[in-house]
Every structure is written in structure tokens, then in C-alpha cells.
Design brief:
4 domains; BirA Bifunctional Protein, domain 2; alpha+beta; 19 helices
């Protein structure tokens, strides 16, 4: 069964059972606590917590989707039989509509009846000090004729939140056998019974609080690539029709690395790059843009410098993902990829020549290569099948990076001395005490403008830097197009409305992880210490929050002190980054 048919069968199966088909959300999530969309349930988090109404939005308590997903945690495993960075997640969801019996029955029927596959075995939660054993799921599986039901612990079959907090609960997993005779987990059905006030890591460490949800929900995820491998009786995911056309178009003989693993890495990264570009991400040295740049540079070390490889990916997926079925978007993807290759190809070539020349590489030399030529850790580690970097570790490289950051910050502080403030959100330049008041007003206005841009343009807006002087504020943000004049007017009006409400401005010092749980925005993670200041601008009468961000100050006490805000210019700063200059009067 072709992957396109599997997608359609999955959606049709659940639509016939009262589920509303919801399109995939962007790879850039609304949730500020996570960098990328890692699971199908992320766009539905507010419906589990009761902050949004599924009946109002979907005309149903149940939804189904094929979600574009991205995980960087498995990047070092990419190239084996099952691991990927970009993947498609088939999922069905319920927000109080049904629970364990229906969810397990749907899973069983889709696998065994709709696809005609055999279930090897399933797993259920064996219980813990905080949550009892899931005997209900065990009994349901056995009533459906699945005899092999295995018990697992919290690390394996208790799903934690996708970000700093969120819905969670015990799970049951479905395993099937591939052409190698290997049992592979293909479907994970999560029973969302709790709100976890902490990250998955905190949950496993016993440091997160579990609060029972008023409405229990279902959250499932099944990797299309793995399901296609089982359905098409292949030995690994790269033999499926999802990858075969891409792999067939890969020629890396020129690099001397024409290995099977190399081709798999290229195929994975080519898909990932294409979808990131299609969702408006552009190469940069921060955040998601840095993830994209790392992937593109890794292709270069494998000898891939032909942007037309992405044409193959687009042709394979354009019939299902409409953002790829657009000639203008196709041309833009190819253009950006070609530009990145052109920009870094010669520099990286010189860096690789230097890497060949020096032979054995330690952490200090690796960082020097990164700083001088832009060679990332993965490229140095992978080069020549790792022969040059046998003793190089990620931990040692990151330590060199940390030392460099400390030196840079010390230099910046010395540069401004007693005549300026170096801040976590950017540089605020003050020449004398008379300018403090004006710059403080501008700095507060900058935070309001950030909030306004997200309110008007959407949560994909991400701060990319700021610079504030006594004359103006300059704010850079990641956004894939020019901001229309009418949109700029709305941003300006939003800020001035917030100013006119004379919002209260307060800060609280707290642990970094706690700040994320509370929803504070921050896009310069590498600069944050374990304890941070979080500034909140809110209406003291209603409690409505207008802005909540990590920041080192300075701020006014009430927004009424800011004065009138005016945007004077909007322009491009770099690829995928816009720049706004504003003043207060």
C-alpha cells in the first residue's frame, strides 16, 4: 500500500467515526516553550486544558490529522533503520469525547482490518507510586484477541508534556514486525488524564506535579514512515516509497562517502530542509534558523551542493501538502537553498581543507574551525567517517563554546563601562544619566511592540535581536515576508492602546524552568542563567496579560509613562528577518 493511500485511509477511517479532519499545523509552533512542532497534539494543547472549545472550532470533540513533525533529539541516530529529523505523524484526538475502550478498539481495527496487518504485541503502563497500573487497557486488548500484553514503566509508557508543561498520562503502544523480523513500535495511544506542571524530565525525576484533568482526552501518534515500512514489507523506512525517489536521485561519489548511511542522512535532511523552508524558516545563527543551517551544511560535507535535489522532495509531497504545490514557493525554496550553498560553499571548502591538513582534532581546534569557517560540530565529527575526531565529544565542544560566550559578554560590558547597560535582550546604549528616562520608555515600548507583532501577524513572529538608543528602538524579528502598511498600523494602534490603559509593569525573579512553565517568552536561551527576571505588563483591574518576557530591564512602572509610540520604518534585515524602527513621543 502506497504511503499516499495510507494517509487517506487513516483520515477517512476516523472521519467516518465522527472525527473532524484538521490540516497539519506549521513546523513553527504556537507554543513558545518548544522550538519546533514535535508531535501532532501540540496544536491541540488548549483543548485538553479547557482553554479552547473543540465544538466551537471543529464542530466535534474529536479530530484527526497528519501532522508535520520535527525532532532534533534523534539527529545523531539518523541513518539507521528508523530514526529521522522530519517525519509525518498520523494522529486521532479526543477532548472528552471518548476514552480508553474506543481509542484501543479504533487502533486495533485500523491496523488489523483496514490495513490487514498483524499486531505482534502491545504494552501497557505497569504503575508507579503516583499512578496505578493500567489494568483497564490490558483487559481491553485481551478482549480484542491480543494475547501478548507487556507491562512497561514510566520512562517508556507514560507520556510527558511536549514543552515545559502540558497534558500527560499513561500510554499503550502497538508493535508490528518488519521484513527483518524485527518488532517496531508504530503507534502510541496516550490517555491524557493529568496536567503536568513541569517538563518530561522533571516528571521522570519525580519533581513535577500531576493535576487530574476535568475532561480526560485521547492523543495518539503513529509515524507514517514506520507504518509504510510495515505495510510495504520493507526492512527499513528508507526502502519505502516515501524515500525511494529521493535516494535514487542522490549521487555523492564526488565526496568519497557514497555509503548507505550517507544516502539515508541526505534523504532525511533533504526532506527536513524542504519543509522548514516551505514553512518560512530561513538559515541563520539562532533558533530554528540555526537548525536549518546545520542540516544544510551537513549536506555539503556529504558532497551535495545541487539545490535541485529539493525538487524531488517537492514532487513527492506536493499532492498532499498544498504549501509545496505552489510554483512560487518551489522557486523560493530552490533560490534560498542555492543562495545558502553559494554563500557557504567556498568558506566551508576552505574549512574542510584545513580539517584535512591538521589531522587529529580536539575541542579547542574544533571550536576554532567553527569560529573561522563555520564548520559545526556535526560536520567536524562526521568528516572522513570520524577518523579526524575520534576523541572529540559534544560536551567538550560545548564547553569551549561557553567559554567563548563568557569572554564576549565580558568584552561587551567593558565596552560600555559605566556609560551603558548590556542587557540579555540586546544592547541599550546610554551616554549619561539624562538619557535613562527616554531609553527606559523605549525599552518598555519595544516589549509591547513584540507582543503587538505576535498579536497582529501571528505567533510565528520570533525576536531576532534589538538595539535601543536614546533616539529610537530597532527591533529584528523572524518573519517570512514584508509587513503590509495596514498591518504596521494595527501594530502601532495595539501598542498605543496598551499604553493608554496604563498597564502595570512588574518583574519577578524565578528559576528559568519555572518561567517557561508560566509562559514567559524568551528567544535567547543561551544567555539565560538558572535564575531569571520575568517582566509582566498586565491590566490590574482584569488581570489580562499583554506582555510576559525574560528581560534584564530597565522598564517603566506603568505603561502610561511611555508616551505615544510611532513606527518610522519597516525593512528587511536579512533573509527571513524583518526590522522595525520606532520612536516614542
Amino acid at each position: 500500500m502506497q504511503s499516499s493511500e495510507i494517509r487517506q485511509k487513516f483520515l477517512a477511517f476516523f472521519e467516518a467515526r465522527g472525527h473532524t479532519v484538521v490540516p497539519s499545523s506549521s513546523l513553527i509552533p504556537d507554543d513558545p516553550s518548544v522550538l519546533l512542532t514535535t508531535a501532532g497534539m501540540q496544536q491541540f494543547k488548549p483543548y485538553y486544558t479547557g482553554d479552547a472549545d473543540p465544538v466551537k472550532d471543529f464542530k466535534s470533540l474529536n479530530t484527526v490529522s497528519v501532522q508535520k513533525s520535527f525532532r532534533t533529539s534523534d539527529i545523531d541516530e539518523v541513518g539507521d533503520e528508523t530514526h529521522l529529523t522530519f517525519f509525518e505523524m498520523l494522529g486521532n484526538f479526543s477532548f472528552g469525547g471518548y476514552f480508553k475502550e474506543e481509542a484501543i478498539t479504533y487502533g486495533h481495527d485500523f491496523i488489523t482490518q483496514e490495513l490487514g496487518l498483524a499486531i505482534s504485541y502491545v504494552t501497557v503502563f505497569k504503575g508507579s507510586d503516583a499512578v496505578p497500573k493500567d489494568t483497564e487497557s490490558e483487559n481491553i486488548w485481551k478482549s480484542l484477541g491480543v494475547a501478548d500484553v507487556r507491562e512497561e514503566g514510566m520512562e517508556d509508557v507514560f507520556w510527558g508534556p511536549t514543552g515545559a508543561s502540558g497534558p500527560c498520562g499513561p500510554t499503550t503502544e502497538i508493535y508490528c514486525t518488519n521484513a527483518n523480523g524485527k518488532d517496531v513500535e508504530i503507534w502510541n495511544i496516550v490517555f491524557n488524564e493529568f496536567l503536568c506542571n513541569g517538563s518530561r524530565e522533571q516528571l521522570l525525576a519525580g519533581n513535577a506535579k500531576l493535576i487530574p484533568l476535568e475532561k480526560k482526552g485521547i492523543d495518539t501518534g503513529m509515524g507514517l514512515e514506520r507504518l509504510a515500512m510495515i505495510s510495504q514489507n520493507k526492512k527499513n523506512i528508507f526502502e519505502t516509497d516515501l524515500f525511494a525517489p529521493i535516494v535514487e536521485n542522490i549521487d555523492i561519489r564526488a565526496s568519497g562517502r557514497n555509503s548507505e548511511k550517507g544516502k539515508r542522512i541526505i534523504a532525511d535532511h533533504a526532506r527536513a530542509i524542504t519543509f522548514l523552508l516551505a514553512d518560512g524558516v530561513r538559515p541563520s545563527n539562532k533558533g530554528v534558523g540555526y537548525v536549518l543551517r546545520r542540516l544544510m551544511r551537513r549536506l555539503i560535507i556529504y558532497g551535495v551542493q545541487d539545490a535541485l535535489l529539493f525538487d524531488t522532495v517537492i514532487d513527492s509531497y506536493k499532492d498532499f501538502y498544498e504549501e509545496l504545490n505552489d510554483e512560487n514557493n518551489r522557486d523560493e525554496i530552490i533560490r534560498v537553498a542555492a543562495n545558502e550553498y553559494g554563500k557557504f560553499g567556498s568558506t566551508l571548502g576552505r574549512g574542510l581543507n584545513e580539517l584535512r591538513r591538521i589531522g587529529e582534532v580536539d575541542a579547542k581546534m574544533a571550536f576554532k574551525l567553527y569560529e573561522s569557517f563555520g564548520l559545526p560540530y556535526e560536520m567536524i565529527k562526521d568528516f572522513d567517517d570520524g577518523k579526524n575526531a575520534k576523541n572529540l565529544t559534544r560536551e567538550a565542544f560545548d564547553e569551549e563554546f561557553r567559554k567563548h560566550q563568557e569572554i564576549s559578554r565580558a568584552g561587551a560590558t567593558a565596552k560600555f563601562g559605566g556609560h551603558g547597560l548590556y542587557m540579555k535582550t540586546g544592547e541599550v546604549t546610554i551616554r549619561d544619566e539624562s538619557e535613562v528616562e527616554k531609553v527606559t520608555r523605549l525599552h518598555t515600548a519595544t516589549h509591547l511592540m513584540h507582543a503587538a507583532l505576535r498579536a497582529v501577524l501571528g505567533p510565528e513572529v520570533r525576536q531576532d535581536g534589538s538595539d535601543i538608543t536614546v533616539e529610537r528602538t530597532r527591533f529584528d524579528f523572524r518573519f517570512g515576508r514584508k509587513v503590509a502598511p495596514e498591518e504596521l498600523k494595527k501594530v502601532e494602534e495595539w501598542v498605543n492602546d496598551a499604553i493608554s490603559r496604563d498597564l502595570k509593569v512588574e518583574y519577578k525573579e524565578m528559576a528559568y524552568e519555572e518561567a517557561l512553565v508560566e509562559g514567559a517568552l524568551g528567544f535567547f536561551k543561551e544567555k539565560y542563567p538558572p535564575r531569571v527576571k520575568v517582566y509582566t505588563m498586565f491590566d490590574p483591574k482584569t488581570g489580562e496579560i499583554f506582555s510576559k518576557e525574560f528581560c534584564g530591564g530597565p522598564h517603566v512602572g506603568h505603561t502610561g509613562e511611555v508616551g505615544r509610540f510611532r513606527i518610522v520604518k519597516e525593512e528587511s534585515s536579512s533573509a527571513g528577518v524583518r526590522r522595525i524602527r520606532g520612536v516614542v513621543e
